[in-house]
Amino acid sequence: MVMGIVNITPDSFYDGGIHLTAKKAIDYALALIDEGADIIDIGGESTRPGAKGVGPDEELNNVLPVIEGLAGRVAVPISIDTTKAIVARRAVEAGAEIINDISSFGFDKDMVSVVSETGAAVVLMHMRGRPKDMQEGDLAYGNLLEDIHQYLSKRIAVAGEGGIGEEKIAIDPGLGFGKTREDNYRILRYLSCFRSLNRPIITGVSRKSFTASSPDEGPADRIFGTAAAVTQSILSGSHIIRVHDVLAMKKVALLADSLGRV
Fold this sequence. Notes:
Elements: E1 2-7, H1 22-35, E2 39-43, H2 56-70, E3 78-81, H3 85-94, E4 98-101, H4 111-118, E5 121-125, H5 144-161, E6 169-172, H6 181-189, E7 202-203, H7 223-235, E8 240-243, H8 246-261
Parallel strand pairs: 1-2, 1-8, 2-3, 3-4, 4-5, 5-6, 7-8
């Protein structure tokens, strides 16, 4: 499945500032659905490396008009990309069905109860630190794949203890979040090790720095690297790819699925 990204932020690393008005964001989301998006993921706060974050009021002002403008109008599920419980609750009330929490309940202790009480699905992602500092300092892991596996296993357990059904949970290894370029490649190569957690795997590789073929390639130049990373992620076991370029990556995904079945 393809999750299309709609960022309503001024500073996201690739599409920041493009969809700042509700009308532009709604029109863009509708276009992504026409291109084949199976899920629309709406974010009102940048989580790029070095991002400082915004308050809940600003985040709500960014996302609620867009969710309200899409809810009841589209057949695909709407996901809210947030770490704040109040934003998640208001978003679900407005029509979102999935809460994409990059902190896996780590930034807001009330997020577990919001997911449980609303009946929303949730994406639990691995990350160390916060976006503003996650790529700073020592990024070394004792055992990269085992550390991520154990972290996600514990967060799934926390969700279960909070009354969230296993069928409501998907996992994301957090490519680009507190990892080196080589770490990201290793995760993609051995993504299948997370299948033992028995939850759908989401991968977000779209136009991230590790998809660049040279140091001078900016986000706008990384579509070919993104296609390669999407292909590898699907062949290694990803169930959902989170991307900016829905039309192109839908085609990539269809071929990668076929290659994986041979």
